[in-house]
Design goal:
The complex is a heterodimer. Chain A is 71% helix and 3% strand. Chain A has 13 helices and 2 strands; from the N terminus they run αββαααααααααααα. The longest helix of chain A has 34 residues. The model of chain A has no long low-confidence stretch (mean pLDDT 81). By secondary structure, chain B is mostly helical. Chain B is built from 15 helices and no strands. Chain B is flat and about 95 Å long. Classes of the chains: A mainly alpha, B mainly alpha.
Chain lengths: 290, 323
């Protein structure tokens, strides 16, 4: 008789298998995320000079952070504050528009495939450069907004700090809507998770379409609304054409790194606020019949 | 059977034929359900057609402005439809962006990144969804973190690493290699998509294959991957199109190189136009040429999308992109 081969317990084998599968990602994570993050954090405290012989670091402490946050408004605040205002305006527009479009596109009607294709089209070509071209061409505005001179109305009646971002959003309104391709898809996918029997039950109980939307569709879509808020925020904030990010360049590694880190912190705070407000407002709302 | 002498319907109280007719009309107009009525249909089509028009407006503008000749460009009465189709602008843009070469580069780059990401993200997503990994929730948190970190935060160290350590500036390695490990442009999102997809698949399939003595690798390649066709399609298309359109990363790594991908076409055109404007002043064709360049950039993914969009959107719905 052969001596039994010593085997590892099956749970350990499973763990090994899983780790083996996941190792490439972890290696990539260390190489392309942890290392650059740490390195850029390190650089943000140093003056970096790239010499022919190598890289030299000179410790500067919090100098760059102080400089960006307290001394020079050009670098951060002058770009950031209008951008944040615009983002606050754009977020609800994008999310509401995509929710609305997704619900309509979910109906069964003739030509649905065509309209789905149309509304998803911008994802294919929302390359930053093409969009920037459109914005400089003034091709993102809506004709009727111009006809009723809405922008000048906004300028007259609102404080200038808010008027300019509103005008900016209005004048590129179509392009704002263009950011909703992926969001529409997420909502479409989310809508599929609501079972038809819930709608049937509501109909038997005599609910009208309005009630059905507010009592069934919307509560069930709430997780997707949150997801889309997060996705849209990340998308807007990491968009290469974004004014702050163009300042992260190779002219001054230390300063750019500090700016990138400050910006990253702002994104985190912004996401945190969204998360907090969202859970605050919708704590009581529970999706029905799931 | 003989006919009853008295028709009972006539004596039924409270239901005059008028009411029934009203109800019928109401059903026809509003529908028994919200989305079935005629009125609602008309509304939906109105909204959809209007929004679609607004949506596509910049695209129409792009196409019409690039086929206008100088007379049409100057004539304010020609807004949308040019008097004749002028292909000179398009030809100019074609030469400016060096289309055949740039197209080939973009195609090779996007295809290789998309293929690598499709595979490597599937492996990572499958592991996260289905396998035992120590500290799994920690890794999942790392994944979400990766999703939120702006590429600009990590670009500078990557640039230094590429130029000082690996000496791969002006090559495509810095763009392709991260994709091999399931990272790269929006790699985290793709891993999340796969994770969602695999976690919705029935457990029994996997168990049955395991009973038959298949190892993890076999289960993954023979059972799970073939099932994941919708997810694969979605990830591949997204990855391809986003890599195609991305100009930030190539712009950073490829600066000064001769062989640039198509996405940098507008930058090239702008630079050349600026140089020209310095010599002979701005030209009437500056904007149309940029529009034509933009058109050349988006045309290939547009054609791809035209063929794939049906499976694509169905695929997204079926992946259960989220929960």
């Amino acid at each position: 008789m052969r001596t039994p081969v010593r085997r590892l317990p099956s749970s350990t084998i499973r763990k090994l298998e899983g780790t083996l599968f996941f190792t490439p990602w972890i290696v990539g994570f260390l190489l392309f995320m942890v290392f650059p993050l740490g390195y850029s954090f390190y650089m943000s405290f140093h003056q970096v000079q790239i010499l022919a012989t190598g890289i030299s670091f000179q410790y500067k402490g919090f100098y760059y952070y102080k400089y960006i946050l307290f001394e020079n408004a050009d670098l951060l605040y002058n770009q950031l504050i209008p951008f944040l205002r615009q983002a606050v305006l754009m977020l609800p527009i994008i999310v509401v528009f995509s929710l609305f479009t997704a619900i309509i596109l979910n109906q069964n009607f003739w030509g649905r495939t065509f309209f789905r294709a149309v509304f998803f089209l911008p994802v294919i070509f929302t390359t930053g450069q093409v969009i920037t071209e459109f914005i400089t061409q003034g091709e993102g505005n809506l004709d009727f907004l111009e006809r009723y001179n809405l922008s000048s109305l906004v300028v007259t009646y609102l404080p200038p700090s808010w008027a300019s971002p509103i005008v900016a959003v209005l004048s590129s309104f179509v392009l704002v809507l263009w950011y909703s391709g992926v969001q529409i898809l997420i909502f479409l996918a989310g809508r599929q998770t609501i079972s038809p029997s819930v709608y049937e039950a509501a109909r038997i109980d005599g609910a009208n379409p309005w009630e059905v939307f507010w009592k069934i569709t919307l509560p069930a879509m709430l997780p997707f609304v949150l997801l889309n808020l997060i996705y849209t925020t990340v998308d807007l904030f990491t968009y290469p054409g974004n004014p702050i990010l163009t300042q992260v360049n190779t002219t001054d590694y230390g300063r750019s790194s500090a700016l990138a880190w400050i910006y990253f912190a702002i994104i985190f705070v912004f996401l945190g606020i969204i998360f907090f407000l969202f859970t605050r407002f919708f704590r009581g709302v529970k999706p029905a019949g799931r | 059977m003989s006919k009853p002498l008295i028709n009972p319907a006539r004596f039924r109280a409270g239901r005059p034929p008028f009411r029934a007719w009203l109800k019928k009309t109401r059903y026809l107009l509003l529908g028994k359900e919200a989305d079935k009525g005629l009125l609602f249909r008309v509304m939906i089509y109105l909204i959809l057609i209007d929004t679609a028009y607004i949506y596509l407006n910049p695209l129409f503008y792009m196409i019409t402005s690039m086929v206008k000749n100088s007379a049409d460009l100057l004539d304010p009465s020609v807004r949308w439809i040019p008097r004749e189709i002028f292909t000179g602008t398009l030809t100019d843009a074609w030469i400016h962006v060096r289309f055949p070469q740039a197209f080939t580069i973009s195609l090779l780059l996007s295809t290789s990144v998309a293929l690598l990401q499709t595979l490597s993200c599937a492996v990572a997503g499958y592991a996260l969804a289905r396998l035992d990994i120590p500290f799994k929730s920690f890794w999942f948190f790392c994944l979400l973190l990766t999703f939120v970190v702006p590429p600009q935060v990590i670009i500078l160290p990557n640039l230094i690493a590429a130029s000082q350590i690996f000496h791969v500036m002006k090559t495509y390695y810095p763009i392709i290699v991260p994709a091999l490990f399931g990272h790269g442009l929006k790699g985290a999102l793709f891993v999340i998509i796969y994770r969602q997809f695999f976690s919705t698949q029935p457990k029994e399939l996997e168990e049955a294959a395991r009973m038959d003595g298949a190892g993890v690798l076999r289960v993954f390649t023979r059972v799970m991957l073939p099932l994941a066709r919708p997810a694969i399609l979605v990830v591949f298309l997204f990855s391809f199109v986003w890599t195609w359109n991305d100009y930030y990363t190539p712009g950073m790594y490829m600066g000064g190189s001769k062989s640039l991908p198509l996405s940098l076409g507008i930058t090239q055109i702008s630079a050349q136009l600026a140089a020209q404007a310095g010599e002979s002043g701005p030209s009437l064709f500056d904007e149309p040429i940029k529009m034509a360049g933009a058109f050349l950039i988006i045309l290939p993914p547009l054609v791809l999308y035209l063929f794939a969009q049906r499976w694509f959107i169905e695929g997204v719905e079926r992946t259960g992109l989220v929960e």
